[in-house]
TrEMBL record:
Occurrences of domain Nudix hydrolase (ranges): 19-150
A Pfam match: NUDIX
Protein name: Putative MutT-like protein
Molecular function (Gene Ontology), one example: hydrolase activity
Top-rank taxon: Bacteria
Organism annotation: Actinacidiphila reveromycinica
CDD domains: NUDIX_Hydrolase
Obligatory cofactor(s): Mg(2+)
Keywords: Hydrolase
Length: 173
């Protein structure tokens, strides 16, 4: 994915330290139930459409913008599928990042799927029974988009009794 200018500006000051960044990942369906994928220029692999929100941009706004910029498809966001933090990534230049990703189910409402920027080698709609090789995370995101499962997030560990009581304004003996 092309690095947004605001991240290049941060990198100019912070160097290659680990940055915690927002990300959006979209599972986009058309009216025939096909899913939209792009073959990324950075890896050569097929992937779900994804991107980084601009400062002040809501995840849904970012999703709609990224889908249009990368694929030429106009879409709307139907619902949030999951929110989670990825494992840290180290890029070829030594920069490190970790993403808090909001995964969204989206529906195409117009446009024609095409390579629309320099981030994709190819853009296509795929029937669910004809998907190209995808990693398990992408497959799980597609499965989640097809289900009525509630929004997924990693649960926080339960606080111990003393901390819970203190937070409720109580003192334990």
């Amino acid at each position: 994915m092309a690095t947004p200018q605001f991240i290049l500006d941060i990198r100019g000051r912070a160097g290659d330290v680990l940055l915690l960044l927002p990300g959006v990942v979209m599972v986009v369906f058309d009216d025939r139930g096909r899913v939209l994928l792009n073959r990324r220029t950075d890896t050569g692999r097929w992937a779900l459409i994804s991107g980084i929100p601009d400062p002040g941009e809501q995840p849904a706004e970012s999703a709609v913008r990224e889908i249009q910029e990368e694929t030429g498809v106009s879409a709307v966001v139907d619902r949030v599928l999951s929110v989670f933090t990825t494992e840290p990534v180290t890029y070829g230049n030594g920069d490190r990042a970790q993403y808090i990703e909001t995964v969204l189910r989206c529906r195409a409402v117009g446009g024609e799927a095409r390579v629309n920027d320099d981030e994709s080698l190819d853009v296509r709609w795929f029937a669910l029974d004809e998907l190209p090789p995808l990693g398990p995370l992408a497959r799980d995101r597609i499965d989640s988009a097809l289900s009525d499962r509630p929004t997924w997030f990693a649960p926080a560990p339960a606080p111990d009794a003393a901390l819970a009581a203190e937070g409720a304004g109580q003192r334990l003996p």
